[in-house]
């Protein structure tokens, strides 16, 4: 392939989406379908002693109620190397408030809801801990991330800074609710679900219900926002599948948002203690960083990963990263866009800003001078890093040279305080293996099937860009089949590796197809596009299959992919480390009387290697910046320590950013291919988009007011 920039293209699915034609999982209907509703536990911990269903069964339309007695006991753990255990089904033991204890099936949604409300639960309660500081919480250290000798280097530092930061419990609320429809027919179970990992769903349902995975198919054609909530197995899936098997009827569950708060992944409350030291030349030479977060009693979402970005931000040769889980009685936290770096780069990039201020240095110049091309964790080179280019271009577009350095020195005529802040971020660039089949038909249609999930980020648009730039095919009958276990082996799509998985395989399929066409036509020039050329030699179709692996992977990865395994390469590849980078420049304005904080403009410049789909890539960054604003200034989940549940578990009370809060978001890309990372030269983008932006906002608030706020969300009351 050439390295020329890709053209801007409209989303291939835009027209269908705006007309409401696109079918999401909850849109699917079947004859004789039953509606399901889960019943949440009203206690946070204990053992259920009775579940009384008589009144619920009297509700007209209620057909059946599933209780723990309807499920097999949990499977034996498979050991360290095996897949994670499936989520529990229904159990008598209660581990957190909101845990599903029963599933009501009815002829209508209304009857299912009424039935669910009529169920009575009795418990032998047990004491519980619901927040990080509760009595009974248990601290559990995890492995350290270390480079060099931070203790020794810190002792030799001429200036140091030390501060503690905190990010609250936050919940993601994709517009699409968690939803599963299951159909049991002719000895096969088919699941329609909004899933970022249809094969994960397949394996986990099979394990939970003791089914042969070979009889389970899972389809997730479109997702209305994933963000990690839909990556691992979902809490409701096996319940709905068992209901379909036991009743012999299709069953649909659309989980209510209030319940999703209690069962799905969320961003845990985390605390970050950061110490950074610089030498006489103003170079950052040492960092000590301790991170800890709230965790369920059995959850595995590791706090060690808070270090994955800070350790690769600057050329700090001596880094000591420690971390701990604090185990309490809530559901497990987990993946939520930029899962660890959102919180850790808020902390770290705030600390870097504090350090620059203490040194009297411009925070852009200070970052530029602390550039590196080395991953000090491994000692290997970074395969590409253009953070300085991001900082320089961002500063130029933003007009950074017009900033007056003194905090509180920029004001509008009406007294509005103006703050200009900067921060940067990075995120691992990873790559799963992929298998792809491309079939071009003489009748004008094309079918391309591979591993991937369309969460709205635009993976189909990126795939289509590669296909139509490389092959003369018509686009009106181009079908891209992804998120379907029956179409191609499926790998989970998360961690910003969707494009890195699908696009190099697509590019390889294009190359293979061009070779196949050349061979078929034996070098003759035939008029028309590929479909017409096939027709003129009376070939009904031409099909190629290719596979692609990440750097350092071999055929074992392809075999593992076929088995439904989790086989991601990177960001530490055998000879190098690959990270994506971004720089954010933010203006905040603080209204003088109400102290309301708004963000009229942002410039964000990213280094994600080669940009495949400019329009959807820009959209990713806008979304990330909006969420970073929301995370910095609005969002916090309120936990009730008396009962263990969430108080603001709906979109009325869980406050998020709105249009009026944010003005222009100007997005740019370095757009330089990283050809070590993969054949196409792209790096991940979805998560790095958000990383560092909350710090840029907090740094701008400091610049506007002189107040350093180290706890999110920053709200009006903190500026009074
Ligand atoms: Mo992402 S939080 O790994 O889908």
TrEMBL record:
<protein>
    <submittedName>
        <fullName>Xanthine dehydrogenase</fullName>
    </submittedName>
</protein>
<feature type="compositionally biased region" description="Pro residues">
    <location>
        <begin position="70"/>
        <end position="88"/>
    </location>
</feature>
<dbReference type="InterPro" id="IPR046867">
    <property type="entry name" value="AldOxase/xan_DH_MoCoBD2"/>
</dbReference>
<dbReference type="Pfam" id="PF02738">
    <property type="entry name" value="MoCoBD_1"/>
</dbReference>
<dbReference type="Pfam" id="PF20256">
    <property type="entry name" value="MoCoBD_2"/>
</dbReference>
<dbReference type="InterPro" id="IPR036856">
    <property type="entry name" value="Ald_Oxase/Xan_DH_a/b_sf"/>
</dbReference>
<feature type="region of interest" description="Disordered">
    <location>
        <begin position="66"/>
        <end position="88"/>
    </location>
</feature>
<dbReference type="InterPro" id="IPR000674">
    <property type="entry name" value="Ald_Oxase/Xan_DH_a/b"/>
</dbReference>
<dbReference type="GO" id="GO:0016491">
    <property type="term" value="F:oxidoreductase activity"/>
</dbReference>
<dbReference type="InterPro" id="IPR037165">
    <property type="entry name" value="AldOxase/xan_DH_Mopterin-bd_sf"/>
</dbReference>
<feature type="domain" description="Aldehyde oxidase/xanthine dehydrogenase a/b hammerhead">
    <location>
        <begin position="19"/>
        <end position="127"/>
    </location>
</feature>
<dbReference type="Pfam" id="PF01315">
    <property type="entry name" value="Ald_Xan_dh_C"/>
</dbReference>
<dbReference type="InterPro" id="IPR052516">
    <property type="entry name" value="N-heterocyclic_Hydroxylase"/>
</dbReference>
<dbReference type="InterPro" id="IPR008274">
    <property type="entry name" value="AldOxase/xan_DH_MoCoBD1"/>
</dbReference>
């Amino acid at each position: 392939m050439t390295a020329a920039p890709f053209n801007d293209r409209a989303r291939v699915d835009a027209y269908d989406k705006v007309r409401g034609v696109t079918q999401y999982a909850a849109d699917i209907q079947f004859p004789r379908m039953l509606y399901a509703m889960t019943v949440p536990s009203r206690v946070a911990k204990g053992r259920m002693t009775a579940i009384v269903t008589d009144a619920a069964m009297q509700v007209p339309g209620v057909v059946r109620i599933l209780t723990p007695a309807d499920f097999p006991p949990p499977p034996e753990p498979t050991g360290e190397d095996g897949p994670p255990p499936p989520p529990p089904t229904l159990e008598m033991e209660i581990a957190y408030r909101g845990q599903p204890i029963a599933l009501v099936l009815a002829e209508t949604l209304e009857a299912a809801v009424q039935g669910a409300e009529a169920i009575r639960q009795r418990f032998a309660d047990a004491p519980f801990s619901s927040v990080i500081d509760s009595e009974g919480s248990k601290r559990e250290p995890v492995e350290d991330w270390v480079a060099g000798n931070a203790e020794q280097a810190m002792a030799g530092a001429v200036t140091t800074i030390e501060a503690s930061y905190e990010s609250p419990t936050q919940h993601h609320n994709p517009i699409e609710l968690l939803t599963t429809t299951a159909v049991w027919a002719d000895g096969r179970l088919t699941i329609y679900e909004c899933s970022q990992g249809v094969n994960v769903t397949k394996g986990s349902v099979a394990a939970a219900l003791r089914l042969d995975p070979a009889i389970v198919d899972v389809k997730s054609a479109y997702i209305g926002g994933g963000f990690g909530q839909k990556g691992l197995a979902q809490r409701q899936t096996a319940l709905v599948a068992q209901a379909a098997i036991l009743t012999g009827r299709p069953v649909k569950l659309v989980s209510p948002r209030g319940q999703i708060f209690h069962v799905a992944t969320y961003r845990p409350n985390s605390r970050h203690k950061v110490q950074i030291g610089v030498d006489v030349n103003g170079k950052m030479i040492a960092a000590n960083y301790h991170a800890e977060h709230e965790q369920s009693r059995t959850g595995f979402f590791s706090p060690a990963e808070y270090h994955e970005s800070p350790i690769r931000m600057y050329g700090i040769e001596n880094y000591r990263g420690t971390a701990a889980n604090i185990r309490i009685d809530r559901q497990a936290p987990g993946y939520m866009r930029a899962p660890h770096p959102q919180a850790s780069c808020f902390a770290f990039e705030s600390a870097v800003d504090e350090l620059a201020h203490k040194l009297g240095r411009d925070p852009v110049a200070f970052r530029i001078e602390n550039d590196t091309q080395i991953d000090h964790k491994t000692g290997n080179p970074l395969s590409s890093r253009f953070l300085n280019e991001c900082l320089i271009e961002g500063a130029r577009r933003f007009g950074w040279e017009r900033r007056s350095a003194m905090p509180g020195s920029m004001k509008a005529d009406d007294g509005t305080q103006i703050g200009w802040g900067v921060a940067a971020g990075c995120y691992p660039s990873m790559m799963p293996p992929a298998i792809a089949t491309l079939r071009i038909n003489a009748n004008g249609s094309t079918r391309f099937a591979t591993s991937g999930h369309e969460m709205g980020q635009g993976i189909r648009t990126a795939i289509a860009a590669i296909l139509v730039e490389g092959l003369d095919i018509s686009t009106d009958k181009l079908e891209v089949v992804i998120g379907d276990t029956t179409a191609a082996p499926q790998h989970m799509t998360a961690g910003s590796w969707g494009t890195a998985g699908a696009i190099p395989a697509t590019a390889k399929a294009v190359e293979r197809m061009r070779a196949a066409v050349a061979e078929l036509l034996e070098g003759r020039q035939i008029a028309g596009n590929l479909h017409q050329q096939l027709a003129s030699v009376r070939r009904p179709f031409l099909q190629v299959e290719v596979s692609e692996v990440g750097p350092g992977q071999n055929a074992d990865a392809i075999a593992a992919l076929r088995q439904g395994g989790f086989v991601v390469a990177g960001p530490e590849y055998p000879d190098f480390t690959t990270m994506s980078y971004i720089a954010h420049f933010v203006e905040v304005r603080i209204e003088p009387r109400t102290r309301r904080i708004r963000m009229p403009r942002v410039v964000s410049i990213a280094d994600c290697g080669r940009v495949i789909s400019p329009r959807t890539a820009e959209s990713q960054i806008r979304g990330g910046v909006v969420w970073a604003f929301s995370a910095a200034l609005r969002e916090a989940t309120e936990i009730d320590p008396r009962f263990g549940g969430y108080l603001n578990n709906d979109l009325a009370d869980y406050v998020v950013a709105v249009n009026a809060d944010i003005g222009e978001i100007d997005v740019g890309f370095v757009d330089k291919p990283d050809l070590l990372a993969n054949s196409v030269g792209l790096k991940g983008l979805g998560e790095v988009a958000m990383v560092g932006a909350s710090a840029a906002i907090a740094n701008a608030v400091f610049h506007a007011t002189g107040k350093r706020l180290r706890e999110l969300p920053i709200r009006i009351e903190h500026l009074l």
